[in-house]
Every structure is written in structure tokens, then in C-alpha cells.
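Worked Example 4.2. Consider the chain below.
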Amino acid sequence: MSGYAERLHKAILTKGTPALVGIDPRFDQLPEEIQSRASLLPGDELSQQAAAYEEFSCRLIDVIAPLVPAVKPQAAFFEQLGPAGVVALERVIRHARRAGLIVICDAKRGDIGTTAAAYADAYLAGEDPDDAPFAADALTVNPYMGVDTLEPFIRRAIDFGGGIYVLVRTSNPGAGSFQDHRQDDVYLYEKVAREVEALSAEHAGIAQSQYGCVGAVVGATYPEELARLRQQMPHVPLLIPGYGAQGGGAGDVAAAFDSQGLGALVNSSRGINFAYLRQPYLSQFPAEHWEQAIEQATLDMIRDLAQHTPAGQLR
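Applying the procedure from the previous section yields the following C-alpha cells:
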């Protein structure tokens, strides 16, 4: 069985980019053709929207699968539609796995004991998509109930070749209200980073790999902290949100990579999902060619990362 970091880096090397596309559907921003088709389906409004999310997400995956190594479905947008949305999420993840993509389910789960183990069993399929109902390779995890809450996720990840991404320094403007709490000259996010590094280094040693299966979420919107955290977590694969629509640029994420251009994934969600609604793509592509706009936005992101980060070594 291959470890998560090994499979991830193989996918990154195959595609020649660390670009990660988040899947964040919003019904009122979907292409008109998908909205109209969904409105004709039987069932209630939530079921129709779930069908639209599934169609849009799967078509998005078909466009980007030849270009990027991984996708990150945001579970919340599907869950807000109730049972039909949850079914759509499961189908979208499996469609992405069939397309050969690494799937990071962004569900930010976190709990204690058997409850944490149940979340892990539900989402973390790891190498074989049939080993969990939601079939994801990796899962985002909230650590703020304590290190012991991470252990069931880590055990599952090790046993099944999966990975987890622990929230360390998030990209939202209010992140500092808790994460910047300081005690003994150490910020809270740095304390979390130390624990994550220790856990990932231990697994990396067992797997005889540079990186372990315990990753970290560190936002592009805090580039100085990102650079420092990369140094503090040399064995940790990073997931970098905040690029694009949230204001982070390629230069802000350059410090996330090792000299080979590995060690990190850079996420863009809205900037790719809804490229057809913003310039320059709005002018370049007619509304019915929204898939071409998504493809071009993805190619532009790939080019940007290659030009301004060590990811250029991959191409």
C-alpha cells in the first residue's frame, strides 16, 4: 500500500503542478443551462439543487482532471441541501476518484474518541475509494479539542493510505482572534504546528519518506507566517487556501514548497468554479462556453504558480 504523501507527489509530478481546485457550488452562480435543467426535475427544491450541484461538479471535474492533481470538495455546500446534497457529495467524490484525482474532502471534522473514529471511517478511504462511504483520499480536521482528537484520524490514515490536513493558520481575516493567542512567546498556531510536525515526522520516519500523512492548512493570506511555518514543519504536506479570490497571489505561496517544487497544494475555488462570471473570462467566452472559461482559468493558475514559485521545477 502506498502512503498518502507518496501518492500525492506522484500525482503532482504527473500533472506538473501543485494547483488544487476547490469545488464550492452555489446555485445562483451556476450556469443557466444547469439551473434550468434542474428546475424541470421531479422532487423538491433542495433535491433539484443537489442534482444541479452534482452535474456542475462532475462537469467541472471532467474539465480539470487532465490538468491538476487534486480537487477539494467543500462538504458544507452539499450538506446544506440535506440528504440529497449528501448523496451528491458522495457521487462527486467518486466521480473525481474515477477521473484519477486525489480528493481532499473539506469537512473540517473534529471530535473525541469513538466519535472522531466514526468521522474517520466515514470519510477517509485512502488509497482504495471503496474503503469508506465518502471515498476521499484525505480530510481536513480541526485540532482545537486537543491532540488526542487527531489520533483516530491518523490511525485511519496510516492503515488505509490516506491523509489529513490539520487547521494550523487559516486564511480568514479573523483567524488571529484565537490563533494569535500568545503564551511563553509562542502563538497558539505555532503550538499546533509543533504538534503536527511531530506527528507527521514520526509517520514519515516509519514510511521512510520526507513527508508524513499529517498535513497542515496554512493560508496564503498570511505569507510571513506561511514561510515561518514551512520551516517549522519540514515533514508536513501543506494545503494552502486563500489564493485568488481571497487575495493571495503566487508570490505569497512560494515559501510553501521545497526545492523540488513539492510539499504543498495551492487551492483556488471561486476563481476557477465561477471564472465565467468574472473578467477577463466573461469577455473571452460566451455564457454557453463556461467550461472553456474554467479550463482557461485553471491553465492561468498553473502558469502563474510555475512562473512565481518553485513549482516551476515540476514542468
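The mean pLDDT is 95. The chain is about 45% helix and 15% strand. Compare this with Example 4.1 before moving on.
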